[in-house]
Amino acid sequence: MRNTIRLCFSAIIGIQPLLWLPSIPGLPIITAILFAAFCLGFIPRLFARYVAFGLLCFCWALFNARESLAPFEQWTAKPITVDAVMTSTDGKQDHDWEMASVEGRPIFPPVGVKSRGSYLPGSVCAGQRWRMKLQLRPVHGQLNDGGFDSQRYALAQHQPLSARILSAEPITRQCSLRAQWMDAVQFASQSLPYQGIIMALAFGDRSGVSDEQKNLLRQSGTAHLMAISGMHISLAAMVGWLIARVIQLSFPAHRIHFRMPLLASVIAAGVYTWLAGGNPPAVRALIGVVIWLFLRLQGRSWSGWEVWLCCISGILIYDPLTVLSDSFWLSVLAVASLIFWYQWMPLPGFVAEAKGLYRYLFSLLHLQIGIMLLLMPLQIFIFHGVSLSALIANLLAVPLITFAVVPLLLAGLVLTTIPWLGEHLWWGVDRLLALLFTSLSLLPDGWREVDKRFQILSLSGWIAVIIHRLSLWRSSYLSVISLLISLVASTIPMEKKDDAWQITMLDVGHGLAIAFIRQGKVLLYDTGNAWPGGDAAQQVIIPWLRWHNLTPEQVVISHEHLDHRGGLNSLQREWPRLKILSPLRWAGHHPCFQGQVWQWRGLQFTALWPPTQPVMTGNNGSCVVMVSDGHFRILLTGDVEAEAELAMLKGRWGILHADIIQVPHHGSRTSSSAPLLRAVSASVALASTSRYNAWHLPSRKVVQRYKSQGYKWYSTAQSGQLTIDINSDKWQINSFREQISPRWYHQWFGVSQDNG
Q1: Hey, how many other C-beta atoms are within 10 angstroms of the C-beta on 623?
Q2: What residues form the membrane-spanning segments (predicted)?
Q3: Strands 660-662 and 684-687
Q4: pTM score, two decimals?
C-alpha cells in the first residue's frame, strides 16, 4: 500500500512542472530524461525507483504537450481536407468537431476543433460525419494579468484549433444516440420555463441557460450545481448502487455478491458521463469512481487521503494536460477540504448523538461552513470574488438538487419516451427548479469582487482550523496574534515612491485601452471595443481594475469609434463620478482639444490635436495627448491618420519628441507617416492589435517603417498586456507573454506574423 501511495505521489510531482515550464523541450532532451529514468530504475533502492517513475511521468507529460502543439505546425499553413465527427452543435452556426483524418490519413487521438459562424447545408446534429475543407487557426487568446486564460483553457479541453469552413459535404447524416436522446428530452420539455437548466443537468449543455439565470447562480454561489460535474457523476453512481442493492433483495443469499452494486455504480456513472458528452469534468469524475472501485476490490482499508492521491495521479496519468485545468484543481481542493474538515473539525458530540432532522440540518451546516472557509483561497484566485450568500443558498440548493432534482431527472432520462409519464417527470423537475430559483432570487446579491491582496488572508480558514485543533491559541498565543496581524497586514496596500508610476496597455483585442497608474488611482485613455451583449470594460478592464485594487478617476476618449469608447458606459455605471475628457462635445464630457493642458497626480497631459475649429470627426478627430512626468514622455495618438499627423507637425516639430509612442490606428498603412516617426524619435512603439482581425492590422510595411527608424516594436497581439514601470528617469517595459508569465501554453502558436 505504501509503495502505491509513493508511486502516486511521484507521478503527481512528475507531471506538475507542466504548469510552469516556459517551453517544451525537444525530443533529444526528452529522450535523455527517459534514458536517465531507466538507469535510475535499475538502482536497487526504492527512492531511486520512485524518482525514476516520476521522471517517466514527466516524459509522458512532455510528450502529451508536444502532441497537443503538433497540429499548429502541421495543418495551419494552408487549407486542408478533413473528415470530422460533429461532437456538439447549436443546430445553427456554432459547432464542435473531432478530426478523424487529414488529407485521407487517419489521426489518433482525434483532435478537437471548433467552428463559429459557419452555416452547413441541411440539418445538423451531433454524431454526423462530414468531409470539409478547412482553414485552421491555432488557439490565441487575450492575455492580461489576472484575466481569463483562454489559451490554457483550450489546451486543457483538447480544443487547440478553430476552423473556418471553406466547403463541406456530409458523409453520414445519422445523428448519434446521445443527440437523439437530447432531441427527445428537448421535445418533452419544450414548454417548460427551465428547459435550459434541465439540459445543462442532463447533458452538460449550458447553451440554453439564460444570462439572468447564470447571473443569479453566480451571485448565490450555486453555479457548480448546474453543470454535470463530479458531484452529479457520484450521485449517478450512488443511484446505480441502490438499484443493484434493491435487485439483490430478490436473489437467494448465496447468489448475492458484494461486487455487483460496485460494478453497477461504475456502469451508471459511465452512462451519465456519456450523456454529458464526455466533457472533461465528467470524465475525471468517472476515472475517480473507477479508481475507487479498484481500491475497494483490493480488500484493504484505504484512508481518504490515500484514495485522494490515487485519484489525482490516475487522472493526471490518463491525461497530463488536465494539470492546466482550473476546474480540476477546484475539484481537487474541494475533496481535500472535505477530508481535512472532517478529520480536524468533526461534528460536535451533541450533534453526532442527535437524531432526525436536527442532526441532518446541523450536519449540512457543518459541511457548508467547511467548504466555504477552505475553498475560499482557490475561489478568489480563479473567480476573483466570493459569494456572501453562498452558505444560505447552498443549504437549500444542495439537498434539493441532490435528493430531489437529480434522481427525478435520471428517472426522466430513462422514461422520457413514455409520453404521459415522461412529460410529467420533466414537469416535476421544472417545478423543483422553479422553487429553487424563486428562493435564490429572494436572497440579496451576495457576490463580492475582491482584489489579489486578499489571497493570503483567504488562507485564514485553514489556519484557524489548525490553530483550534492544536490548541495553539493556548500554548503559543503570541505567535497566533503575530500571524493574525501579518494576515491582516497583507491586505494593506504598499505605498510606492511618489515618483514611481506605471502605464499598462491592456490586451483588449481590436481596440485600445491604456491605464496610467499612480498612487492607486487610474487615468484611462480609451475603453476598448463593444459587441452585442458585452464590451471590453466588462470583460477585461473592470475585472483588471478590481483585481489590482485600482480606482479610475478620469477617462480620455480619443474619438467616437466604438473600438475606442465601447466600454465607457460600463465604466460609468461602476464609477458614476468619472471625469470624461474627449473631443466629442457630448454632454458631460470635458473638452480635449489642441493647446489644453491639465495635471493628474503629478503627471502633465498636453493635448496636441485636434484643433477646436474646424470641427473634426472620425479618426482624424482623435485627441492626441503627450503625457510627461518631467523625465519620461509617451505620445498617445488614438486613430489619427497621415493627413492629421502632418497638420499636427506644423510648427510643433520640437515638442513631439517622446520615449514611447502609441502606434496610431493599430498600425494601419493610412497612419504612422515617416515625418511623424522622425519627429517623435522614440525608442519603443506600442500597438494595440488583435490577431486574426479582418483588416490585417498591423500592416507589415508600417511595422518595417518603425523598425527602420530604430523603434522597438511591441504589440498586444504578440505580447499580451504590456506594462511600463517608470521610476524617475528610469523605465522598463514588460510583456505578459514573454516576461510577466512566460509559459509554454502562452506562446504565439502557428505562423509567426499571422494577423488575419
Answers
A1: 27
A2: 20-43, 223-244, 282-299, 305-321, 328-345, 357-383, 395-418, 477-494
A3: parallel
A4: 0.90
* DSSP type of residue 401: I
Nine-digit cell string for 25? 523541450
Pairing of strands 129-138, 447-449: unpaired
In sequence order, what DSSP letters do the residues of 558-617 get, joined into one string? Answer: --S-HHHHTTHHHHHHH-TT-EEEESS--TTEEE--TT-EEEETTEEEEEEE--SSS---
Q: Retrieve residue 404's grid coordinates.
A: 430531489
Residue carrying the nine cell digits 527512492:
47
**Domain coordinates of the chain in residue numbers?**
2-70, 76-175, 182-449, 454-489, 500-746
User: Which superfamily, per CATH, for 500-746?
Assistant: Ribonuclease Z/Hydroxyacylglutathione hydrolase-like (3.60.15.10)
What does the alpha-carbon distance between residue 340 and residue 333 come to, in Å, rounded to a whole number? 10
Instruction: Could you list the beta-strand ranges (E) of 405-550.
Output: 447-449, 500-505, 514-518, 521-525, 530-531, 534-535
263: its cell numbers: 460494478
pLDDT for position 227: 75
Residue 608 sits at φ, ψ, to 5 deg, of: -105, -15
pLDDT number for residue 756: 47
Q: How many residues does the chain have?
A: 756
Main-chain phi, psi angles of 382, to 5 degrees: -85, -50
Q: Which residues of 694-731 are buried (b: 16+ CB within 10 A; e: fewer)?
A: eeebbbeebbebbeebebebbbbbbbbbbbbebeeeeb
CB neighbour burial string for 626-657, b if at least 16 within 10 angstroms, e if fewer: bbebeebbbbbbbbbbbebbeebbeeeeeebe
Which CATH fold topology does 76-175 show? OB fold (Dihydrolipoamide Acetyltransferase, E2P) (2.40.50)
- Tell me if residue 138 falls in helix, strand or coil: strand
Strands 730-735 and 684-687: unpaired
Residues 70, 25: contact at Cβ < 8 Å? no
For 163-204, what is each residue's pLDDT tens digit? Answer: 999 999 999 999 999 999 999 999 899 899 999 999 998 888
With a cut of 50, which residues of the chain have pLDDT below it? Answer: 756
The pLDDT value recorded for residue 253 is: 66
Tracing cell 432520462 back to the chain, one arrives at: 413
CA distance 664 to 679: 14
- Residue 501 and residue 151: Cα distance in Å, rounded? 30
Q: Which of 465-501 are b and which e, b meaning 16 or more Cβ less than 10 Å from the residue's Cβ?
A: bebeeeeeeeeeeeebeeeeeebeeeeeeeeeeeeeb
With H, G, I as helix, E, B as strand and everything else as coil, classify residue 259. helix
Q: Which three cell numbers stand for residue 336?
A: 481535500
